[in-house]
Amino acid sequence: MKKSLLALAALGLFAGAASAQSSVTLFGIVDAAFGHLSAGGKSVNGLSNSGINSSRLGFRGVEDLGGGLKAGFWLEGQLFNDNGQGSNATTGFNFLRRSTVSLLGNFGEVRLGRDYNPIFWNFNSYDPFGTNGVGQTNMQGMINLATGAPANSIGTFGNGTNATRVSNSISYFLPGNLGGINGQLMVGFGENTGSVDTNDFIGGRFGYTAGPISAHIGYAKTKAATPAQDTEYANASASYNFGFLTPMVIVAREKTDAGFKVEAWQVGLVAPIGQGEIRASYGSYDVDNSSNDWKKAAIGYVHNLSKRTALYAQFGYVKNDGAQTVTVATNGLSAGNASPGGNSKGYEVGVRHSF
pLDDT at position 8, please? Predict the structure, then answer.
């Protein structure tokens, strides 16, 4: 349930901020599931969170400044509702999911702060599972998942820090009156004092969305502590809504200046059935000059009890080749890495409520 500024003020939040031309909204999602994962000869049962939508709590608002100009803010933090923790078990709740302030007008939007990078949107918008749960695509930070990289590089090779969100960033979004054409440019500043500006980021996303057609391309580059590990991202995505079925496709590549490269493609579909929808995807991930590849398949069903509440069940399966150890994963539950060249699978059955 969306709360008005008066309700927030009654809670002692944002007191004195109300005006006839401004508004503040409290919003969130609570998503929890029972899950089972297996990998490397081990299995685990337990409660997971964020199976079909990331659990979150946030505040957003906008003020009309007149003359077509508006100011807005967005503060959003992750919830691990399976154990009651906030974004960080040590420091508690924070706004690492998004913390931005914006100026909006006929010119578009200028947005400052921590936000999703444009490459991520091409994954999230065209993945049937919305980059959540056991079915989610592995295209975010592919290099960090891949084995076969130079020694001691697993999990740190390239730069995974900016794979989803970028801190200290400035973005420009095209206005929404361009006949379906849309886009984003982003620059992020690492704010380092050393000789290498680790985590500096630059990227963009452009596309077209009108009627049943949607297609986007994206490109970005981010700096690492070692220049040879600077990482380049590129992807392209498209979908077509036939009404009874929406097929979608993603192709992506990540590579470092040292020449390590992972390429991937994924096809997916969403098919509405009564009050729910079927979701399915299949992806193939190729590590350049290596046999350490992997493939992932997933299927799920979401049943909408209302506009805000849904039940869901989904299953994911990873087949590794060579020495690869990629595993099926979900928030709050892990069975560890798969055995080299082994398989991993998992399912979860849960409920999501938004407010």
Answer: 39
